[in-house]
Amino acid sequence: LISHIKHTLERKEQVLIFLNRRGYAPILLCESCGWQADCPHCDAHFTLHAQPYAHLQCHHCGSIHRLPEQCPACQKPSLKTLGTGTAKLEEHLQELFPHFDVIRVDRDSTSRVGSWQKIYDRIQQNKPSILLGTQMLAKGHHFPHVTLVAILDIDAGLLSVDIRAPERTAQLIVQVAGRAGRGEHKGTVYLQSHRPEHPMLNTLINHDYRTVAKQMLAERKIALLPPYRYTVLVRVDSKDRSYSQQFLADIAQQLRAMAAETIDIWGPIPAPMERKAGRYRAHMVILSSDRAKLHFYLRQWWQHVLHLPRQHQLRLSIDVDPQEFS
């Protein structure tokens, strides 16, 4: 890939590198004792950011902490980063290709008023350069001088618990790949994955998105998943972990008593990220093959649920035909 980038730049063309992970590094840990920099409010690691100053930030609740000089657990100066974000990759690319511009496009580089327009104007100068960015770089932009696209570390979308994640990953690959070869010259696309044998990737590479979609629909039909059954997601979060799940269990029992022959209920289960911003989240999924009956029972049941007493600052919501299960 590095060799191909070099040749592309020498031909005075542009390269687009897609990495959907902003920041400098996603993990900070201690090599001596194994301590990791975790957000105290979420079930997530802090991300290390190097600009405008070195700090740790949670990408889920937004909390910011100073960067420790030594391990808070064992007091040894043995902290190191794992993984790569767009800011770290920008540094590496500038070292590899010092005579060419590396233009980073992510939420951090475009946060100031007018910054995106300045970046866009640099790109449209059509000088040989490397465009590096997250999803916001791929959405609908026309870069006629981009002839090489590299999509890095796409495995997260292949391993998600969300049933729609592979579908969205395939769409994203097609979208990003579509930035290459939009001008006079043909384009080349690289995909980086630790699972190159994944069926979805192989189908997408050897066929097209339509074939991927047909395969996914066939799998969902066997499993009776959307669009072959209608789905409702109930989300609950509160300050108390057990209360969130118990509340869902109680209202699930009430719905089963009303419509046991019409619906299936999955859960309650912890959300994929159970703790976020200091609140504990739980989910319940309701499925039915009959949309009319599903909505009939839901209307009655939900009106009852809304009038139930709540504790621990409990919040609840209902999502009909959910697009995400996060």
Describe the protein in words.
The protein folds into 3 domains: about 1-25 and about 85-220, Rossmann fold (3-Layer(aba) Sandwich), CATH 3.40.50.300; about 30-85, no CATH class; about 230-320, Ribosomal protein S10 (Alpha-Beta Plaits, 2-Layer Sandwich). About 30% of the residues lie in helices and about 25% in strands. A hairpin with a 2-residue loop joins strand 12 (about 265-275) and strand 13. Helix 5 (about 165-175) runs antiparallel to helix 7 (about 210-225) and helix 8 packs across helix 9 (about 290-305). The mean pLDDT is about 95. Strands 7-8-1-9-10 form a 5-stranded parallel β-sheet, with helices on both faces. The chain has a 4-stranded antiparallel β-sheet with strand order 12-13-11-14. The chain has a 3-stranded antiparallel β-sheet with strand order 3-4-5, with no helix packed on it. It has 9 helices and 14 strands. It has helices at about 1-10, 85-95, 115-125, 155-160, 165-175, 200-205, 210-225, 240-260, 290-305, and strands at about 15-20, 25-30, 45-50, 55, 65, 80, 100-105, 130-135, 145-150, 190, 230-240, 265-275, 280-290, 315-320. It is an alpha/beta fold.
